[in-house]
Amino acid sequence: MIDRLVAWIKNQVNEAAALGCVFGLSGGVDSAVVGALCKKALPDNVLGLYLPCFSQDQDLTDAKAVADKFSIPTKLVDLQPVCDQLYQQLEGKAFLHKDKSLTIANLKPRLRMVSLYYQANKLNYLVVGTGNRSEAVMGYFTKYGDGGVDLLPLGELLKSQVRELARKLGVPQQIIDKPPSAGLWSGQTDEEELGITYEELDKIIRALDSKETKGLNIEKVALVKRRIQASAHKLCPPPVYKP
After folding, report:
1. Is 75 annotated as a binding residue?
2. What is the pTM of this model?
3. Helix/strand number for the chain, H first, E second
4. 27 annotated to a ligand binding site
């Protein structure tokens, strides 16, 4: 799997006549795996961006551990003052750092996308996303934020498969074990937002693939089905009127 993913990334970059890859290093397992794969694919042409935006200090520490482990060149772009200023222009008041509104929280991944594409355009690199299938199925990503990328090497892999890849690649154990978080606000975790653990979610996705959900929690299966239906628009191009 690692060899196939590395070859695929390299081929995608070559087909686009690009020179390399840029990606965000968040301190999470998905971005760690993407960083390691890109480094294997294009050893001399990768860039990892640290993009803190009212983030936890530990996230930056973990992101730096990944960069050190895989010798990934990095750049720090502090998005906190930008986010503050943008919010003040939009709302006419100071940014509410602890506000759990998705309207506010989604500013962060969209600012990160802008930063990634700035570097991509400057270097003729492709933006490599870190999303996985478990998140995509649930629509757990920000449209034109972390969903605004050029390629998704983990897009067909469940969270459990990403963790296994992380172990094989040698990602530091503390990153594999830490609770996944999009960093939308202090203390936020993916599983709390999703209303289901990744272990349960992956089992249900596999069961839906095989059309055999017997023995699974009925309410959790219904939750996943609702999320799939509600977020379908996020996985499709914008509808275009055809006269």
Report:
1. no
2. 0.93
3. 12, 4
4. yes
**Cα radius of gyration rounded to whole Å, the chain:** 18
Which two three-digit tokens encode residue 182? 């999009």
Q: Report pLDDT for 188.
A: 73
- Give the residue ranges of the chain where pLDDT is below 50: none
Is 78 annotated as contributing to ligand binding? no
pLDDT of residue 97: 67
Distances (CA, A) of 117 to 49, 88, 111, 210, 235: 11, 24, 10, 38, 20
Q: Is 163 exposed, middle or buried (0-12, 13-18, 19+ CB in 10 A)?
A: buried
Please state, in angstroms and rounded to a whole number, the distance separating the CA atoms of residues 19 and 79: 26
Would the annotation count 110 as a binding residue?
yes
**What's the CATH number of domain 2-235, 1.10.580.10, 3.30.200.20, 3.40.50.620, 3.40.1620.10?**
3.40.50.620
* Active site amino acids: 30, 135
Domain range summary for the chain, segments of one domain joined by +: 2-235
DSSP structure class, residue 151: B
